[in-house]
Amino acid sequence: MTPQDLYLVQSSWEKVRPISAQAAELFYARLFSTAPELKGLFKGDMREQGQRLMDMIDTAVNGLETWDQLVPAVQELGKRHAGYGVKDADYDAVAAALLWTLDTGLGDAFTDEVERAWIRTYTALADAMKSAAAEGAAA
Q: How many domains does the chain have?
């Protein structure tokens, strides 16, 4: 991630915050329509799950400036997700749903440059989660 990626991700996320409840609904609707097999990983109230998702993304986006402090929390999240049954391929479905949600929510503000910044950021975070999950499984 570059400083420009950081700026683009954080500034675009600021525009999503006011519509976070709707963004969460869009995200899960898209995720379950494109990867219905993932629906079984989610238990309980989906509004609460959506709020947790938005809070987690908010924490990650705000923590990007202090990457070294963010990574251990992201790694722990990856280990927990593995315990829930999340597989590496599931991260691709989540990425696609997230990018679609950002595109839908931001409209014209979701430029190619913003999309590339989100892809690089998500990839770095997902890679940290997946490696921690693999290390946890090997232990």
A: 1
Q: What is the rounded distance in angstroms from the CA atom of residue 38 to the CA atom of residue 30? A: 11
Task: Print the domain residue range for 27.
Answer: 3-138
- Residue pair 4/86 in contact (Cβ under 8 Å)? The answer is no
pLDDT along the chain (139 residues), means of 10: 95 96 97 95 90 94 94 92 88 97 97 98 95 73
Q: What is the CATH number for 40?
A: 1.10.490.10
Q: What is the pTM (predicted TM-score) of this model?
A: 0.92
d(CA 113, CA 63): 21
Max CA distance (Å), the chain? 46
